[in-house]
Amino acid sequence: MKTREYQYDNLRFLLIALVVLGHLLEIAGEFPHKETLYAVIYSFHMPAFLFLSGMFARFDRSKWIFGMALPYLIFQWLYTAFVEKLGDPYVHVQFSRPYWILWYLFVLAVYTLLLPVYDVPSPVGRWLMVAASVALALLVGFDKSIDYQWSASRIIAFQPWFLLGYYFRRADGLRARWNGGGRTLRGIVLGLAAACCVVLEWLLLRQDVTAKMMLGAYGYEDLGYSWQVRGLIMCCSASVIFLLFAGLAPHLKRRIPVITVLGQNTLPIYLLHGFFFHLLRLKFPYLLAQPWQVLLVWVGLLLLLGNPVTGRVTSFLFGGGWHHLLQTRRGRGRSIAPGEKI
Predict the structure, then answer these.
(1) Cα separation of 15 and 164, whole Å?
(2) Which of 170, 178, 179 is nearest to 55 (CA)?
């Protein structure tokens, strides 16, 4: 039986918690250092999430259809209809522009279809694939015609992180060399990475790099920034990802009360927290006027949506669970010969 890798459940919790917090900060009242916190979160949280998704990516036709494509169509309709009903004049039911958080599900579905292309056997080929994806991520910002439509810009801009995670999981030799490098050497490398992270975050804040520039959805001309700034953002994301997966993850290989359970149920948090967000945004913005209110709503949403009961129901309905159950029952039915006792 395969042992559960709790470190990745715990990292999932950290990242989904930052996703929810980042969204709440968008509509929260003004308070000291709010914009700084918001920018720091957006500098790495989605690249890190895509890196983690890449680590566990595999193509399964049923899972892709019933756990990605179908949930996208259902939630795209639910979200756009819900927000339109709440009175947002700019939102209408459509399926070609993944709405709000659904870009991530759509992009993940595209990357999963591309796994046969990504599955290069040689290390040199993998590095070339990553290098090409980085070049494309920097170049796509020059094209003004690529935007939110089909999440085309984000598919290209965030591709390096998914690829790196996909290859990292399969780089047994690289991980073995890292683990065998000695505690002192690892400590020095992690210390340098932490220093780089602090310097890069400082540079981003000093140059007034906004969270919009980190979304991967806007061209350089639209927001008045350059490919060098996007490169700086990517370097910052890479340094934080290295710290998370090489430095923090090895210390999280155990069940942590509440946190591990929530990390095992990130799907309902991801899919459902947006309904609360838009309700607060359009009807009850005063509930996020103060920092303590943001903290209270943040913790409340994580506990409400990340509990095991919500997780099981969501996985059954939107994670392909119901289809797997039907297939299992059909298989059992076919295996019983006519007239055989059950």
Answers:
(1) 17
(2) 170
Is 53's pLDDT higher than 90? yes
Q: What distance in Å separates the CA atoms of residue 166 and residue 168, rounded to the nearest whole number?
A: 6
Phi first, then psi: what are they for 272, rounded to 5°? -105, -20
**Residue 288, CB-side half-sphere exposure with 13 Å CA sphere:** 27
* pLDDT tens column, 84-94: 999 999 999 99
Q: What is the pLDDT of residues 150-199, one digit of tens each?
A: 999 999 999 999 999 999 998 888 888 887 878 898 899 999 999 999 99
Residue 332 predicted with pLDDT over 80: no
Note the pLDDT of residue 64: 94
Distance CA 12, CA 234 (A): 20
With contact defined as beta carbons under 8 Å apart, do 54 and 162 qualify? yes
**pLDDT digits 0-9 by tens, 104-116:** 999 999 999 999 9
Closest CA to 36 of 195, 222, 204: 204
262 touches 66 (CB < 8 A):
no
pTM for this predicted structure: 0.93
